[in-house]
Amino acid sequence: MAETILKVDAVTKTFGGLHAVENVSFNIDIGEIVGLIGPNGAGKTTLFNVISGYYAPSTGNVYFMGEDVSGQPPYKLAIKGIGRTFQVVKPFPGLSVLDNVVIASLSRHPRRRDAEAHAWEVMKFTGLADRAQILAGSLTLAGRKRLEITKAMALEPSLILLDEVVAGLNPTEADQTIELINKIREQGKTILIVEHIMHVIMNLSDRVVVLNFGSKIAEGKPEDVAHDPAVMKAYLGEEEQ
Amino acid sequence: MGTYIKGSNIKLFALIFVALLLLPLIFRNPFFLRIATEALMWIGLAISWDVIGGYTGRVNFGHGAFFGIGAYITAILMMNWGWAFLPTLPVAGFGAGLVAFIIGFPTLRLMGAYFAIAMWSLALAFQQLALLMNITGGPDGMRLPTFLNPEFFFYLMLVMVTGTFVLLWYLMECASFGFKVRSIREDESGAMALGLNPTRIKIQAFVLSAVPAGLIGGIYAYWVSYIDPPSVFGDIITDQAIVMTILGGMGTLIGPAIGAVILFAFKTVFWAYLSDYQVLYLIILGVVIALTVFFLPNGVWGTINSYLDHRKSKKNYSLISL
Q1: A241 FRET partner, CA 20 to 30 A, in A42, A143, B18, B266?
Q2: Do B186 and A104 touch (CB under 8 A)?
Q3: Which of B84, B87, B86, B123 is nearest to B103 (CA)?
Q4: Considering only CB atoms, which chain B residues are within 8 Å of A92?
Q5: A:B CB pairs within 8 Å
Q6: Which of A79, A106, A118, A145 is the best residue to mutate to test the B interface, defined by the most B CB atoms within 10 Å of its own CB?
Q7: How many domains does chain B have?
Q8: Has residue B182 been placed in a domain?
């Protein structure tokens, strides 16, 4: 039995009267890749924001490595080991790619010299080293998504949350990113990934959690979930009689 | 950013410092020394403003408040409590830093123009406070004992501003703190995901910006020997520091120093020869800001820098093509 790294326990997040996430529970074990899918507006990004500390859950709890971390600010969770990327990428546009990654390295390597050495290592790993001196704002979309992953990795997290890092890329770029995610898994990281592109989720994930209108409607192995009637209904609608 | 201090930089700074040290020996004219002292003062105010305005990206329209607080602390300690001048300076710096620390918590949550407005009104509130209180002498201001030694004030200002410059250079351009404040300027919520606590970094930067302004205010009070609310809490102090920084180049230390020298030289000439047209001065400041934003968005120093970078990268390309 593998050890649980993240436990989402009956989390609900409401904005006014809107239940963006409602009573969602699931666990992630160390070393797993879990896919989080669902139609637009299902609450995937909201759930990401709750797990990474950007929103406090309205009710329910999030446990990371056995500790209740619900409502802790993002920077504390980042230091505890939760790294994340943003669907709407957040590079530091006026700084070089290198400086972006150096900043991401600072919480583990407070001295600038060490942070820079570490940043180069991570950039080599993710394939950004050749663009180190470019301004982050002038990268292509693929580059900026790659930078998001690089920064999350520079934090040396044990759990990494990837929010639509493949969406919007062309097939070659998408394949490179999938390859990179596999490399990250080989490093022993646990990954929670949100993605719209089904073949990415189906190929990468050990397990899939499906959300619809804020509630969990299915959980299981990718091939089982794909044939789950509730999931088919959520994605394709009901068959007319 | 991205480079450690280069040897050539250190040599250049040392050269400028030595030249400034020798200045009073060459020009014995007190009027000239007075101008040089005030130019140094503006360099100090502009670079300290740039810590929060340029590096951290929070445009502070109340920087003058810290200057005024320092000036009044020195004046009150000397006149009401009979302190000697030098011991008042640490208190002046500490007082300005403490005020920044306290008001930073509510105001630094605000973004863009809202922070600017909050700080502007706060500076105004301090000016009103100084007008109303007895201890500050109200609208009559305060007279300090006169100490007519232009060399003393020149050297004191030189040491203070050079010290500030070196400290800020280390923190902003060499140490990791410079990276942290830049990340806050670029994207606060993105910085949080990387383990950085924005509130803490902003408060640190704010205090770092306020303390030199308070120290310089303290020196100013003793130097000019008369202060009143408009002269040390007036908008003009903040406004000039901002125009100097924008003109020279925000987010750098050399930029504001260049901007301060250019603008202060202009102001001196303008007030000496065209004093009938003083009303025009503020209008000219406004025009300078507008023109700079349009034509030199990175300021004088930023423009020079990107031109040099461009040439360097061209050279690199030609090397590659060989």
Answers
A1: A42
A2: no
A3: B123
A4: 182-183, 186-187, 190-191
A5: 88
A6: A106
A7: 1
A8: yes
Amino acid present at B100 = A
Residue B311 counted as domain residue: yes
How long, in residues, is chain B? 322
Q: Which two tokens stand for residue B4?
A: 């450690």
Give the gyration radius of chain A's Cα atoms: 18
Q: Please state, as a whole number, how many other Cβ atoms lie within 10 Å of the Cβ of residue B191.
A: 27
CATH number for the domain harbouring residue A151: 3.40.50.300
The Cα–Cα gap between B97 and B82 comes to: 23
CB contacts, 8 Å: B1 with chain A = 95-96, 99
User: Which residues of chain B approach chain A closer than 8 Å at the C-beta?
Assistant: 1-2, 174-176, 179-180, 182-183, 185-187, 189-198
Give the domain CATH number at B232.
1.10.3470
Radius of gyration in angstroms for the set of CA atoms belonging to chain B, rounded to a whole number: 20
| Residue B1 domain-assigned (yes or no) | no
In a domain, A240, yes or no: no
Q: How many angstroms separate the CA atoms of B314 and A218, rounded?
A: 57
Residue B2: inside a domain: no
pLDDT digits (tens, 9 = 90+) for B176-194: 999 999 999 999 999 999 9
* Shortest CA gap B55–chain A (Å): 11
Does B176 contact A111 at a Cβ distance shorter than 8 Å?
A: yes
Residues in CB range of A119: below 8 A, 6 or more apart:
A98, A101, A102, A104, A105, A154
Q: Which two tokens stand for residue A84?
A: 């994340």
- How far apart are the CA of A82 and the nearest CA of chain B, in angstroms? 9
CB contact under 8 A, B192 and A106: no
Which residues in B lie closer than 8 A to residue A152 (C-beta atoms)? 193
**Domain that residue B36 falls in:** 7-321
**Total structural domains in chain A?**
1
Partner residue opposite B1 with nearest CB, options A74, A95, A152? A95
For B194, the closest of A96, A99, A104 (CB atoms) is A104
The pTM of the full predicted model, rounded to 2 decimals, is 0.90
Report the pLDDT averaged over residues A183-193.
Answer: 92
DSSP strand pairing (A159-163 vs A82-84) = parallel
Residues of B in contact with A99 (CB under 8 A): 1-2, 179, 182
Chain A residues in contact with B313 (beta carbon < 8 A): none
pLDDT tens digits along B22-80: 887 777 788 888 899 999 999 999 999 999 999 999 999 999 999 999 999 999 999 99
What domain range is A179 assigned to? 4-235
Return the closest-CA partner of residue B227 out of B134, B296, B140: B140
Query: Pick from A166, A191, A203: which is nearest to A34 by CA?
Result: A191
How do residues A126-174 score in pLDDT, each as one tens digit? 999 999 999 999 999 999 999 999 999 999 999 999 998 988 889 899 9
